[in-house]
TrEMBL record:
InterPro entries: DNA_pol3_clamp-load_cplx_C (IPR008921), DNA_pol3_delta-like_C (IPR048466), DNA_pol3_delta_N (IPR010372), DNA_polIII_delta (IPR005790), P-loop_NTPase (IPR027417)
Assigned EC number: 2.7.7.7
Stretches assigned to the DNA polymerase III delta N-terminal domain: 6-128
GO molecular function: DNA-directed DNA polymerase activity
Record's keyword terms, sorted: DNA replication, DNA-directed DNA polymerase, Nucleotidyltransferase, Transferase
Reaction equations catalysed: DNA(n) + a 2'-deoxyribonucleoside 5'-triphosphate = DNA(n+1) + diphosphate
Residue span(s) of domain DNA polymerase III delta subunit-like C-terminal: 200-320
Gene3D superfamilies with a match to the protein in the record: 1.10.8.60, 1.20.272.10, P-loop containing nucleotide triphosphate hydrolases
Organism from which the protein derives: Salinicoccus roseus
Record-stated family: Belongs to the DNA polymerase HolA subunit family.
Ranges annotated as spanning the membrane: none
Protein name: DNA polymerase III subunit delta
Amino acid sequence: MERLQLIYGSNTMRISEKAKTLAQSYVKEPDAFSIVTLNYKETPVEAIIEEAQTLPFLSDAKAVIVEDAFSFTGAKVRSEVEHNIDLLVEYINNKNDDTLIIFKVYSEQLDNRKKITKLMKSKGKVTEISEMTEQEVRSHIRSVAEKAEVDMAPEALDLFIQLVGIKYDHVTNELEKLLLYVEDTITREDVEEIVSVSLEQNIFKLTDLILSGRKAEAVRLLRVLILQNEEPMQLLHLIISQLRLLYQVKLMQGEGYQGDFIAKSLKVHPYRVKLAGREVRKYRQEELEQKMVKCRDIDYKFKSSYLDRQSLFELFIMEI
C-alpha cells in the first residue's frame, strides 16, 4: 500500500469511510495510538510531520489521518495556523518513515497547478470519491440490508429512493433507522412510517405543487418545512434553483441532448436531471419562463419588504 494517500470529493461521509478502511487495513490491529487523526485547520505542518515520524506505541504500524487538507485545493480557507507548505513539500518528496498518511480533502477538484498537488500525485496515490449513481445507491442499499440479514421489497426500495433521494449521507442515516426498526423484511409501510423525506426531495415536491397549481397542498408543505426550521429565504432560493434547472433541461431536451450530456453541461447529478426530465414534459417553455419571472419578483419583495417572509411566501404561492 502507498504510504502517502490523498482522498478528495464532496461526499464527506464516503471519504471518511474510505480513509478508515485504508487505515485499519494498514495497521491491522487498530487502537487509539496506532491511528491518529489531526485537523489541518488546527494543526501546523510541523506537528503533522512530527506525529508521522513518531514510532507507533504498542503496535507494528501507524496511520495518521489529516482532516480537511485544503492546501491541495485552490480554496481560500480560514485556518487557526499558518502552514509551512515548503516543509510539507520537502517531507512528501523525501518521506522515509513507515507511517501511512491519509490527507482528506473536501472538494470536488484539486488545484493541479500547485507544486504540492503535483508532487502528491507523483509520490503517492490520489483517489477521487465521486457521488454515487442511482443504480450504485440501489445496490448499496441492497448490500447493507443483506449484511443485516433483512430483505427489502422492491416497492419499498423504490419508495425509499423517492423519499430520500440518492445522497449517500441521507441514504445511510435513513437506512440505519429502518434496520433498527424492522426484523426480517422492509416493506413499503415501514418506509412510509419511518423514513424522513430529504429537503432536496421536499423542494422537488414543493416546486411540482407550485407549478401544477395545487396551491393549498403547496402551502401546507411550506408550513411543514418552516416548522422544521427551514428558512423561507433559503426555501425560495432552492425553488428558484429547481425552476432554473427545469427550464434549462427543457431547453436542452428540445435541442435533442440526452440526460448524461445535460448533467455534465449543467454540472448537476444525473439523478436530478432524470427527475427534471420527467417533470418538464408537463409544461411549456413559456410557462416555466413566467414562473421564473414571478420568483424574481418575490425575491425582490423578500429583500425589500418588512412583511413576514412566511406570509410573503404563501402569497407568492397563491399568485404564481
